[in-house]
Every structure is written in C-alpha cells, then in structure tokens.
Amino acid sequence: MQRIGRSAGRPEGQPYALAAAFFLVCALALAFPWLSGRVTIPWDAKAHFFPQFAFLAHALHSGQSPFWTPNVFAGMPQIADPQSLIFSPFFLPAAALVPEPSFVLADAIVFAMLAMGGLALIAYFRDRGWSAAGGLLAALAFAFGGSAAWRIQHVGQIMSLAWLPVTLWLLARGLDRRSALYGAAAGAAAALLVLGRDQVAFLGVLMLSAYAAYRVATDESPKLSAVTPLAAGALVGLTIIAVPLAFTLELAAHSNRPEIDLDGAFKGSLPPGSFWTLISANMFGTDGPLKNFWGPPAGERDLFLARNMTNVYLGELTLVSLIAALGRRFLSNKEIRFFAAAALFFALYALGRYTPAFAFFYHLPGVDLWRRPADATFLLGATLAILAGYGFNLVERGEATPRTAWLVGAVAALFAVALLVAGVKGHLNQASWPLATSAIFAALAIALILATRDRLLRGPYLLAAVATLMSVDLTIGNGPNESTALPPEQFDALRVDGKDPVIAYLRGKLKETAGPDRRDRVELAAIDFHWPNASLVHGFDHDLGYNPIRLRLFEDVTGAGDHLALPEQRQFSKLYPSYRSVLSDMLGLRFIATGVPIEKIDGNYKHGDFVELTRIGDVHIYENPGAMPRVILATCAIHVDFAAMMKSGEWPEADYRETVLLETPPICHTRKDAPPATAKILSYENDRIVAEASAPPGGGWLVLHDVWHPWWFASLDGVEAPILRANVMFRAVAIPEGRHEVRFHFQPLRGLLTELSRRTSP
C-alpha cells in the first residue's frame, strides 16, 4: 500500500542517520555547560522539581512509598500531583537507580527528553520524504530554540513538550500504514504526554487530535481504515492514563485550584512585541541583568510573566528558511497547511488579551483550567520548527528558489524595523550589538540558503553547515543566562551533602528536640526562591512549601500560598492570624528560619513571642517552645462547627494537649484520679504511621497532627477504625481504655474508589 500523506519524489540516499548523529553531537555541545556541572538549570527546576526528584529517590531507596510526603504542607498526596515525577518514564528509573540524585543528573534528564523529541522530528521528516538537512534544522530549533530553551526551568512543561514529536511521528506512521501497532505506540506516547497534566500537554493533545481528524478527512484511503490505528491508540492511551488522571482529577476536587476566569487568564498573555525575539534573541537584553531589560512584559499592566517567558528565538536559519520558502508551493503540502494553521492558532492563543481570538478559545473545554495563554509558545516553537525544516527541504529540492535580492531585502527590512523599534523606545545603543550579532548570523543563514538553492552544498557537507550554523547561533542567542543557568553553588541548600549552615543548624536542633511523641516542623520563609521545598531533600517536615497545587482544606485553614520566597508571600488566615497562635502550636511548628526579622513577615508578632536562637548570615532562626507533639491522647472532646470556625477565626478556650475539637457531640472522660494519658510514635514512614496510646478509664482520642485526607485509613489493634477530622484539619482515632496500637495507612487507590463510589451513589 502506498503510504498516505508522504511527499512525492522522495530524494534518494538522504542521510537521515547522519543527520541524527549530527543532532546528537550538537545537542551534547549545546548542553555541555550544564552537563559539565559549570552551571545548572535554576528557578523551578531546582526550587520545585529537583526536591521532588530527590524525595522520589530517597523514598524508593529507603523502601518507603513515594505516594505521600509529610515533608511539605503538613502532608501532600504525591501520587496525584502532576509535578511529583512519579509517572515520568525518565525521572522514575533514574530515581530507582541513583539513591542520591545530583544537579547534573537532573539537568541531563531534561536535555535527554528534548533530544528524544528532536530525534523523533528527524524520523518524522524521513517518513514524509523531506530532506535530512531540513529535519536536522527542525530538530535543533525544536530542542534548543524558543520556549524549550528559554523556559527549560519549567521541567514539567518540557516533559510534555518532549513527547509531542514522538507522538506525532508514531501517529503519522499509524495513519500512513493504517497500522494498529503504530497506533498503539502513538497512544502510549500520547499518554506519557498527557501525564504532564499541564497546559502544554493539553494544547499538545488538542493539536494531535486535530491532526488525526485532519488526516482522516484528507487522506485518500477509505475513512474506515483509520479506525484500527486510532482505536488501538485510544485503548492503549486510556489504559495508561486512566488511573493517574483519576488521581489528579480527585486531587483537583480537594485542591485550591479553581477555574481560571477570563480576566485571570488574560494576565498571562504574551505581549505582541515578544515576536521581535524571533529576529534577535537579546535585542531586549533578556540574557543580561534584569535592570537592563526593556522588552515586554516590562511596562505592561496586569501581566504576570517573567522576561524569559516572552522569548521565542529559534535561530536565524529557522527564520530565513521560513521567509525563503513562503509561497504557493509551500502551502501546497496538506500537512504543512495543517502545521501553518496550528502555528497561527498557537500564536493567537499565546497573545491572549491582545486579540479577540482567545476570548473565543476560552470557551473550548479545558481552557479555563490554565492561567497562562503564553504557555502556547512551547507549541508555537514546535510548529515553526517543522515549518522551517520543511521550507529548507523545498529549497534543497529546488521546489523553492528564492531570489537573492528579495531574500536579502526581506530580512534586512525586518532588522531595520527592529532597529527603529529600539530607537523609538530609547534603547538603540543597548539593542545595537545584539541586533548586529543576529544580523551576522542572518547573513550566514542567507548565504547557506542560497548555496543550498544553487546546489553548492549537498549531503554530509550540507548537514555539517546546518549543524554548525545553528549550534553556534543558538549557543550565542539562547546560551546560558540568568533565566536558564546559574552556578550550582547557589543551590547548596538543596544538596544532602551540602555545607549550608542554616540547614545544618536546623537538622541539629530537630535531633535535639526529637522525642517519642514528637516530630517537630520547621518553616523556611523569605530566604531565597529555592528554599521552600528544601525539606523534601533533607527529610524534615516543613509546615508550608512551594507548589501551585495545595489541599484546599490546608489552604483555607492556614492561608498557605504557593510560595514562600518573599516576606509578602507568607499569608496568614483567620484561624492562623499570627505565628503566635493555637494553630502553629498544633502544627508542631518548633523552628522558624526567616530571611528578614520575623516582625517584617508577621505584622501581629510581638517581641518575645518566640525565642530568637541565632542569626546565620541574613537568616534569623526562632524557636516556638509551645509547639505541640505530633501525637497526643486527648481525653476531652468539644463539639464545634469547623466551617463556622474558619469563617469566624475563633478557637474555643481549651487546653489542646488534653482536648480535641470534633464535629461530634461533646464527651469528656477526664478524672482527677485517672492515670495520665500517653501517646507515642512507634514508627513514622511516608505512607504508614504506627502509634501507641494509653487511655484512662472512659478512653480518649489519639490525635495525629498531620493534615486530614480521605485517602488515609486507620486500624485499632488490627481492626479498622474511622479517622475523624479533628481540630479543623488534623486526624483523630477514638481509643478505648487501656493500651492500644493505632496504624495509619495511606491507601490512594482504595481512597479514590471510595470517593468515586460515594459521589456516584444515590
């Protein structure tokens, strides 16, 4: 059977294997600053994803489950968190093999994912019969251009992006050959893409679904013949994704993540001026000190974008190839018409509030889950890479023959307008050198296009020229900078064997205060961007953390925000109005480390509320002597309405070392002549906790000061016992008189099925 969708007249002897080899060599060269350990991917890659990676490795190598962590936000269901890396086919095996992940390993995995995507694009070009040099250009632009380069610190989105070309290649093969096997493989790859559970994954699935529908509608083969590969893909994909996606959807139901309204989404729009970075990566000073940056979103009102999020540079050869090939012949290929339409869609989507289009897109199912239209630049870069590679293919095959004067004039006009923009904005001197550097690469790109047109370069020499020009250009334009590469020493607090004195001091103090009933918590506030999740690396418990997803119950009770890097990011609530409060005691918040004096964070703090133990550099460390144990045995219960408490912010007057608040009728068993009630922890692991309690006559309640969650279950002396929600957000189990053993188990699958059954029952 003739393959569907392939270009006629495939060039014979195209060196695709050599193109792949050139790509891998270039990828190693471009990634070398990170792989050598000289720099490391900063920001979210270290502040959020590296601690998740370290926690996963530590859990696996200690024989514990990684499905729940007690180390942040008083407990989080990792199995349901899209950013936990548990379902990553790259990070999970690495965590299983390496007990102590390094920064270099984490960075290498990110680049390996991008390299996988680049190789898949070369394979896709091969199947389409397009030139190997065009495939090499597309692969390099995809993996080291645009948002893939400038937002490489957003590891979750990079994971999603990397699976897009793989899925496209396998899906195209499945439809070309009407193959159930390739269809199933495409479904598996699509499932791994969806496992990212972020906006890049969402938009990627939209594009792939549209591609499949477009192919079915336009292929000459009978429509029903496409059912087999598509059905096989759907079956395999749904099988892989069903359970993880169900966990995440259930977490969403219990989380703080609301629907994003249109105005909220507009705040993540890409300013139109960002597209000048297609001409020159650094005309706005994106790679220099922040104070010298003058491009968008600077000066834009109500936009929440970092400067690196607006850079879409893909290399001058990418831009020149697109200009050289544009024309009727370019759009005569039906797949290129699809990708041109996809690129337009993603550009309009990314622009958000700047065109009327996004207000329409917002009504597509699922769009209201995401807060930043500018995330579409990941997909825009991928589609432009394909279009540019195809354009280069047309030039190489002689099907596009750009005139020298026209090509030079078009490119020169773009640079002239860019200079005019810089001059009007008063930044001509600052922009001149980056634009001049880019102009040199643009001239070299024009020369390469013309040499290709005139068949002066062919085969391996053409591949070498493309590889060299793109690699040098992307090294200079998209190379290591403040947004993508910082010295690894800056993140010493995230190394288990690091020398950070604050971490060492806190770990020592936690050992000193440890006891049979205690597992004290700390807070790391306003120290630096990468500090809030350090507890995941070092295995101690932080009352807060860094994650855009938090349990709604915990956030409502504590006021916890998604980050804790700046003083103003430390939020309090009605029930938790100050560090000196009932809730901080219940949390067992024993030590607080702050990058500023504590009163600059807590306006209600009074001198002497806590003991200032020491100051290490700029970090102040305080102790809360009133922090309660992790487990207590309460002998008196007070009936309260938790919702009313959260609304009023009022705690009943009580001794909370003896009293528990429950949404059940009040009972008090305390007698003056009763033996003391005791509780202690026998073992404490991520997903299982064993405690022993001794209750006086009349019994009591074992209170565990970990956040309540419906996927936890308990047993009392081996017999299942209900976990009561206690003290607004903690856990309790009723205990009869005498000595008893209580076991808490995190059982996510059982909890999920129980929740779904309860929700669907009449």
Automatic annotation (TrEMBL):
Transmembrane segments: 16-35, 103-125, 132-150, 156-172, 179-195, 201-217, 224-247, 312-331, 338-364, 376-393, 405-425, 431-451
Keywords: Membrane, Transmembrane, Transmembrane helix
PANTHER family, alphabetized: INTEGRAL MEMBRANE PROTEIN, INTEGRAL MEMBRANE PROTEIN-RELATED
Protein known as: YfhO family protein
Source organism of the structure: Methylocystis rosea
